[in-house]
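SECTION: protein entry
WANTED: fold as C-alpha cells:
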Amino acid sequence: MLLTISTTHTPATDLGFLLHKHPDNVRTVSFPFGDAHVFFPEAGDDRCTAALLVEVDPVGLVRRRGGRGGRNGGGAESFSLAGYVNDRPYAASSLLSVVLGKVFGTAMAGRCDQRPGLADQALPVEVEIPVLPCRGGEAVLRSLFEPLGYDVASERVGLDDRFPDWGDSRYLSVRLGGTVRLADLLAHLYVLLPVLDDDKHYWVGDDEARKLMDKGGGWLADHPARDLITRRYLRHRRSLAEGVLAQLAEDDPDEPGAADEEHDREEGQVETPLGLDRQRLDAVVEVLVAAGAARVLDLGCGEGRLVRALLDQPGVEQVTGVDVSPRALERAAARLRLDRLPERQRGRVALLHGSLTYRDSRFAGFDAAALVEVVEHLDPPRVAALEQVVFAHAGPPTVVLTTPNREHNVRFGGVPAGSLRHRDHRFEWTRAELAAWAQRVADDHGYAVRLAPIGAEDPEVGPPTQMAVFSR
C-alpha cells in the first residue's frame, strides 16, 4: 500500500523537518505484518514529496491473527483461504493507520524540535492514495474530508480492465488537497482511513476509544459526520461509541449550557448601558442593505437576533442562520416563532446546524455573510480555519465581521484591567490587530476591506466595538 504527501511550501524541503525524516535517506521500520519504508521521490525548494510504502506479508498477518484468535477464531481448525487471499497488502486500511502512528508519531504530535514554529504553520499539501477502500463510495469520502477543509478528487478503481462487465469495485484512487498543519493532516488520516474501510485488523477495546479522543479531540466534536466516524472507528461497538459521543458532547466548548447563558447575561450587563447590541445589529443591517444582499448567511447566529432584524428588510429574500449549538438553534426558532410565521415568511428563513471552522457546501451561493461577535469565541489556531471556510470556500461578495475592541475594556467598570470582556472569549483584538488581520485576509482572498467603529469613539481607546467590511 502506498501514500504520498507533497507540498509546495517554500522551501518545500521543510517537509523533511516536520516528518523528522531526511530527504536523502530511506527509513525502514518493521512491523509484525510487514515493513514500512519512508523515502522522498522528489525534494526540491519548490516541491517536495514524502512517500510511505508498506509491504504487507499476508501470510504472516493471517498466521499472527490465527494464533491469537482473529475474527474467524484461532488455529488450524478455523483455516480459511480468504484469510490469505485478500486486499490487505494493497489497499489503505487500519494497517496503514498503525504505520502512520508509529513512523510519523512525533510529527502527528505537532513537535518539530529543530524548527518549533514550523509545526504551527498551515502548509499547502496534496495527499495521494492510489487504492483506498471506501464503503459508501465518493459521497462518504467527501462527507469526511470536505468539512475539514480539503479539496477531494477521486476515481473509481475497476475490478479488472479485461472484464469491464464486472463493473467497479469499492476502491477509489484519491487525491486530497488543502492548507493545513501537518500534525492535523496526519491525525485526520490516522482516524479516517479505517473509517472509510469500515474495518480494522485488530480487536477494538477501550484503548481505541482513548486513541480516538486523543487524535480527534481537536476536530471531531463539531464534525458533521462525527457519529459515523465514531461508530465506524470503533467497529460499531455500541457501548464504546456511545461513551465517546457522550464525552464529545460534554466537552464541546461551543455547546452552550446554563453556565454559558449566565456568561451571556454578564456580557449584557457590561454592554447594555451603551446599547451596543442594538447598535451592532443596526450597523450590520445597514451594510448588508447597502450592498444589495438578497441572500444572507448569518454565521454563528446564536438566538437569531440578526436573522430577525434582516427579515424586516424587504430587499432581503433569504436569511440562513448557522450555529454549532443545537440548543441555540432551538432558541432561535422559538424567538423567530417559526411555527407561527406565514408560509411566505417561513420560506425566507433557514436554520442550519454546522461549524464555522469546517468547509460546508451549504455555505456557498450567498450574497453576503455576517459574523457578529463570533471570531473572538474561537481558539486562535482555529481562526485560520474560519478564514478558509468563509473567504476561500464560501467566498460571498460581502463579508461583515464585528468584534470587541480590547483597548476599550478599561472604560467598562465591571471589567478588571487586562481582562477580556466575556469569560468565553478566547482573545480580543486591538484596533491595530484587527486592521492587520483584515488587510492580510483581504489581500490573500481578493477582497477590499474597510474598518468602521460601532459605538461612541473614545479619543484615547477607540470605540467599544469594531467592524470590518470585506467586499469584492
Summary: The chain is about 35% helix and 20% strand.
